[in-house]
Structures are given as C-alpha cells and as structure tokens.
Amino acid sequence: MKYEPKIIEDKWQKIWEEKKTFAARPDKNRQKYYILEMFPYPSGRIHMGHVRNYAIGDVIARYKWRKGFNVLHPMGWDSFGLPAENAAIKHKIHPTKWTEENISYMRAQLKSLGLSYDWDREIFTCREDYYKWCQWFFLKFYEKGLAYQKEALVNWCESCKTVLANEQVEDGRCWRCETEVIQKEMKQWFFKITHYAEELLSELENLKGWPERVLTMQRNWIGKSYGAEIIFPVSDKNFSITVFTTRQDTIFGATFMSIAPENPIVRELIKGTEYEKPVTEFVENVRKENKILRTDATREKEGIFTGRYCINPMTGWKMPIFAANFVLMDYGTGAVMAVPAHDQRDFEFAKKIGLPVKVVIQPPGVELNAESLESAYTEEGVLVNSKEFSGMKNTEAMEALVSYFQKNGIGRKVVNYRLKDWGISRQRYWGVPIPIIYCDSCGVVPVPEADLPVRLPMNLQFDNIGDSPLKGCDEFVNTTCPKCRKKAKREVDTMDTFVDSSWYFSRYCSPQSKTSPLEKEELNYWMPVDQYIGGIEHAVLHLLYARFFTKVIRDLGFLNRGEPFTNLLTQGMVIKDGAKMSKSKGNIVDPDDLIKKYGSDTVRLFCLFASPPERDLDWSDEGVEGAFRFLCRVWRLLDEEEKNFSHNSPFSGIKDLTGQETISEDAKTLLKRCHKTIKKVSDDIEQRFHFNTAIASIMELVNALYLIDKNDFKKDDSLRSVYFFSVETVLLLLSPFAPHICEELGQRLGKAGTIFEQPWPGYDEKMLIDEEITIVIQINGKMRSKISVPAQAPEEEIKQITINNEKVKDLLKNKKIIKSILVPKRLINLVVK
RNA sequence: GCGAAAGUGGCGGAAUUGGCAGACGCGCUGGACUUAGGAUCCAGUCCGCAUAAAGCGGUUGGGGGUUCGACUCCCCCCUUUCGCACCA
C-alpha cells in the first residue's frame, strides 16, 4: 500500500474537527498549559514563516497534551489594518469582504496543516464582538487618566494625506509614493504607557523565560537614566529654562545652552527682537527635515544664537542660548546645558562657533588642557575648577551636587525615561473607532458604555486615500451629545491595530463572553501564557504593549498578575538563497504547492528538522524531499506485516525486561535503543525545543529497524515482539511532528484508540544502562584506542586493561606514565613522558 | 560608534556539565535489485600522506593562554547578522 498523504491527512483532519479533539475546558484538577503563537494578519495566504511558527507551537501543544496537561491552544486573526484598506481602493472591494475572504482561505490552509487548535475560540479583531471591547478598554483607560489627547509631531505624507507608522517610512520617504515624510503637529490620542515605565522595566528581571536579546531591546527602549533637572534663569526675562542632565558633575563647565528648535521657549526668547526672523527661519528649516535625517549622529551640528543669555546657577556666568538641531524636543526637557569639554556634541558645536571650552573633570594622571583638547573627555575623573566640589571624584560629586541643588532650589534629582506615551490615533478607516464625541457645549465626551460598540460604517466609498475616511461619512460623524443631547460630532480617527493585539491572548480565555471583555475566573485559570512563540520583529512593539495592557487589566481587577507571557520563543526567519523569502526577491515557496505534493506532515517535519527554532531556517527543496523520504521509510516499516496484526490491541505502555528471561541479545539491544530514544526525544522537546535532534534520533531508531532481518523472527519470537514495540514507539514519538501518518499507521498496526489519546511514552532508567561500555584511551590527550569493559568495572581494572592493551604497550615503549585520568564511563587519559 | 548573537565538511546542522569533533539529513561515490532507475535497499563519504590493510599527520574564522584534555573557559584580532545610535 502506497503512502498517500493527501488521503490520510484529509481523513484525520476530518476526525479531529468532528470530534473537537483539541477543545479546551478549564479543569481545576488538571494542570493547565497555555501555548500560543502570534496570530496572523490575514494578508491572503499563509507563508513559510507562518508554517514554521505554527509547526513549532503544534509540537509543544501535542507533547504537553500527551504529558497530561490541560492545553489551551487557540488561533485567531489580527484583522484590522492598512492592507485591507489599500486593497479596497485598488480593487474596489470592501475591506470587510477582502478580509473575510482571506480569513476563510487561510483558515483552510491552517486546517490542511493539521494544527491542534481549539477552533471554537477563534477571534477576529475586526468583528464587532471583539472591537467593542477595545472601545470598552479605551473608556476605562480614559476614566483612569491613561488615555488623553494632545498635540504631537507625527510622520506625515503630504501626497497621501495620512499619518504613517514608523515602519512605513523608508529612508525618510513614504513607502507608497516616495514623497519625503515630514513632521506634522496633530491632535492625537495617547495611552499613558509611561505610567508603567518603572514596572515595565523592573519586571523584565523576572522574565527568566525570555531571550536576553528581547529583554535588552526592551530595556533600551524604556531607556531609564538617572540625573538632575537644573534651573537656569534667563537674563532680562522673568522666566527660567530647566534642563535635564545625567552629568550634573560637569555643571561648572557649562558655558552655553542649547535648546530644541521645536521648544516653545524659543519663540518667547526671540519675540520682538532682531533675532526673531533668522531664528524662526532656522527653526522652520530644521522642522521640515525628516526624523531619520534629524537624528543621524553623524549629522553636522548646527545652531543659531537667540540673542538671549541664561545664568549658570553655580558659576554665575552668562551663557548664550542657542537653538540647535541636535537637541531633541521629546527627550528630557528639550533643553540642555552645554559642557563642551565633556560632551562630544557640545564640543563639536563649540569649536565650530568658537565658544569657550572649560575643563572641569581631570582624568587620573593626565592634565587636560582646554586649548589642546581634540575631543570631549567623557570618562570619569576628579572635579577641578568647581569651587568647593573641586577634588571630589565625579561619581561622588553627582550626589553632592544634587543635594546642593535641592537645598538651594536650583534643581532636583530626577529619573528620566526614553519611553514615550503611545500615540494610538490613526487617520484610517479599517480599525477600531475611538469612542469619543466632541460637543460644542460639553467638550470631549466619552461614549457611554451602554452605547458600545461604536460601529464602523459599512457604506463608505473607497476611491481615494484621504485623511480619516470616516470624516466624509456624515451618518457616522453626526450624532448627539450623550450629556446635553445637542448635536455633536464623533472622533473620526481609529485606533492603532497594536491596541487590538495587546489583549487578544486574554480574550482567548473566554472568547464568547457577551457581558464582559474577560471572565475573571477563566482568565485566572489560563493566564499567563506558558509559552508564546513569534518573530523577533515584535521584540519591542507588540510585546511591550501587551505587557502594558496586561498590567492595566490587572489593575482593573481582572487578573492577579501583570505579566502575560512566562516563556517566549522567538523563531528565526525562513531564508532561501541567502535572503528572507519575499515577493521582491522572487524566492517564495508556497506552502500550498508543497502540501499538495508531499503532504503537511512532510512540510512540518522539514521545518522542524532543518534547524533549531530560534535560528534562521535555510530552505532546501532537497531537504523537503529528504523529509518525505523518511516518512516513506516509516510507512514501509509495517507494509507487508499488516495482515499479521490483531485488531484493537492496546498500546503497549512501558516495555521493560521484567519477566522476559527468554529475550534474545538482539531483541534486548533493540529494546534498550527504544528506551534511549524515548529519553532523548522527551528531553529534546521538554528542555530545549531542539526538535531537529529529536527527529534525528527517531531517524536513527528507524535506521536500526531497517537493519533487522525479519527472517530472524521465525526463530526469535522476542525479536519480533520488540520490533513491533519499536515501530509503535516510533509512531508515539514521531506523532507531535508528523501527526497524520502516525495516527494512520497506529490504526493499521491494529491499535485501539488514537495516538493522541495515548500518554507520552515513559522510559525505564534501568534500560538506559549498558552492561558493556566503550572507554576511549587517550595518550597525552590524543585518542589512541578504544576498549570495551563491563560498566561496573572498577578504576584499577580499567587501568590494568589499558596498560595491557597491545597498542598501548607499543606506544608506551621507552615512556613513563606520569599520571592517569579516568573519566567514568567515558575515557582514560595517560600522561606519559 | 555602542551592544548582542553567530562563525564547525561540498550544504543544513550535531556534540546538553571541559572528555571519541562532524550525530541526523542533503549532496556525492560505489554496489544490490531491475527491461530501466531520477524508485528502493546496502555500503562509503572532514582534509592530506600512505594504502593490500593497519596506520600517520592535520582540522571547529585567525593568533595567544588556562588545562592531563578546549568547538566548549579566558585575552587579542577578523568576518557576518541583528538591535541601538546626537537620549544630554
């Protein structure tokens, strides 16, 4: 009988679907295991990256299930987003239709892969019953002061008339029309993620199951730094400028001040003076520059004098104030004290303009001299020219100065974060409407909870990209104020789709709940996700937002903990011909074609075998062929034997040697090999997710089975029995990787029930021990020979056998043994002279 | 520039705690079966020397070190990938 993957895969997928084999129910008596792969955007078709991601998750899910865990393994669709809107414009098809059609197609593709999802929990972020709760969360955020509105600078494409996400800006240009992106000030809604900045940072330490890489990226992103805010009074004005610095120890060397061009203080400083025109011109020019160019470290330092001075509170000097292109408005206070001797940027700028440089930190053993300085000295040292602080180590001066500032009202100690609040407004149609109403009398009014959802209107025309398409939909925009019942207008922006994906994993715990976004009891049973799997590209964005949301969900009283993902696996990319698979490279491999040709078991097996999950996977058509060949080999293990099996016999469970005195040596060797393979495969899955080596060891077992001469069965019944036990073992071990073929062969082997219902095979420690072991003989660290000794042989005996070995004797002629090292069960090393 | 990860046969990769480098697969070579083989089975396959066989030497990006022993630990350097990058 030929191995025909298509037939058997259809058969088993149908059985799984009808029986709801993978449905999860909370069960207090069983330990839960929540495994999750990042849900996909329904772009049209599944690609190889998805296949790999889901194959990895499926192995873990099936393994844990068989280990007796109550497994939750859900799937859904991150189905709001710009591509649907673009497709609508291009093909005159409604985003809903486009999205739902893609979902149907991709769901069928996932099902054809035989993945163990609980499809009853499927989530669609673009459907009312989900996005209603996004709006509900928005209202809760608003109530708690975690959602607010402010003017902000955003990436703006003048040609497309829309805000662009950072990912959609390539080299400072719009990805679609290549227009240069500018910074535009717009009123935007923000989520106050900075409220949790400290916790988001400190909790990283407890995420032991996360890759260090991701933790580092999040730490960098949050960017905590310790320093001081210092107040500099402005000459001839009744206000002052506050700067943030981490180097308050250098304040005696501050000779001028630089402020961000965008800083509103600039306007105040120049108002009505001769500097107004040139400075405004400079500011406008800098603002027109795109952000990428602006924040390039190698960019020429430019600045313009504002005509004003401020007073250094420690030295009393008049410091000229400059507007400078290298000062960022959105970090610190948007103003910095410039210390040219000890900051490279200030140094470059001072040299260019000809501003004074003053050394206030001296490194040990060297005398720095302001005139001969070629670059800023930014390392540690001792304070000089710093009044009573002179002579202090700069690290000590940090603290001393902060106390001095605080005592004298000059400044204070502060902690600054690089993390900014999350701007969630998008001038798009295909997203969650922000549930806010603007009333001329009442101002900003949140939509009452009872009125949710604010529905996305379905009757829009998609013939042109405009900013906030909802603006043009009168029946959406025009409404009545919930407070005063007068005419009012709705917010026309929608939410960033990252909002939708920030809590979907929680919703999976009670996906059908109509009364609440989350059911407390179910949530606390399933959460946190025990194993989350996805690409590294979400290291900061999604994974940070999800952590933030989970903390809010905790503080809203739904959940008793604030971290969503205990373990995180970031799988590598799928590479072909040295590049990531992409349309533009033309190196795409379509999963559908492969499944049609080889079956999904083969495709999954190859993805898992070709490299460990966290590394990039090099695609190889020959490798796929090899995976298929291996499954054919497994198939043929029992090809001619089928008629000999008794039907409905139970699976064997652990098979050891108890009561088997009649077992032959060959059978014993094979049986031991089975137990070793069980251990190896279990450990590789459980401890390291190294599926490639797990599969390799199953291949070894299969190779060993092929070397057994079935003619021997006639005279050796124990060998026959162990052989079929081994086949059974192969199926039990291989089934998380290639489930369909294993189920089919299990049935053909005459077994009652399915493999999925069988517990994961155990092994007998006794069966792992060899009676005879091979000891390697090294002489001066070089491998010279091997000997076979009883496993229990004492050290002295092994040594005797070694020196009596013919070859060793030969090599030891005229030499003296100085030392011998015995590594138990492995080797003996003779050090000779 | 800063930080992280990686570098092993012709290729993908293995070696889990410092103990036989190259498991397993691909590719290649030979043999068996065969009308045929691009199916299947068996065997060989790191490199060099030697070769009837046994053997000898070398080898984990390069150089140094620690150790009886290093792919593994330490120092220096090279290359690649990724992340951050005027953050005061």
Automatic annotation (TrEMBL):
Keywords: Aminoacyl-tRNA synthetase, ATP-binding, Cytoplasm, Ligase, Nucleotide-binding, Protein biosynthesis. It catalyses: tRNA(Leu) + L-leucine + ATP = L-leucyl-tRNA(Leu) + AMP + diphosphate. Residues 668-797 form the Methionyl/Valyl/Leucyl/Isoleucyl-tRNA synthetase anticodon-binding domain. It is found in: Cytoplasm. Residues 219-404 form the Leucyl-tRNA synthetase editing domain. One of its GO terms (molecular function) is aminoacyl-tRNA deacylase activity. It is an enzyme of class 6 (ligase). The keyword Ligase applies. InterPro entries: aa-tRNA-synth_I_CS (IPR001412), aa-tRNA-synth_Ia (IPR002300), Leu-tRNA-ligase (IPR002302), Leu_tRNA-synth_edit (IPR025709), M/V/L/I-tRNA-synth_anticd-bd (IPR013155), Methionyl/Leucyl_tRNA_Synth (IPR015413), Rossmann-like_a/b/a_fold (IPR014729), tRNAsynth_Ia_anticodon-bd (IPR009080). ATP binds at K583. It holds the Pfam family tRNA-synt_1g. Belongs to the class-I aminoacyl-tRNA synthetase family. PANTHER family: LEUCINE--TRNA LIGASE, MITOCHONDRIAL (PTHR43740:SF2), LEUCYL-TRNA SYNTHETASE (PTHR43740). This is Leucine--tRNA ligase. It comes from Candidatus Schekmanbacteria bacterium GWA2_38_11.
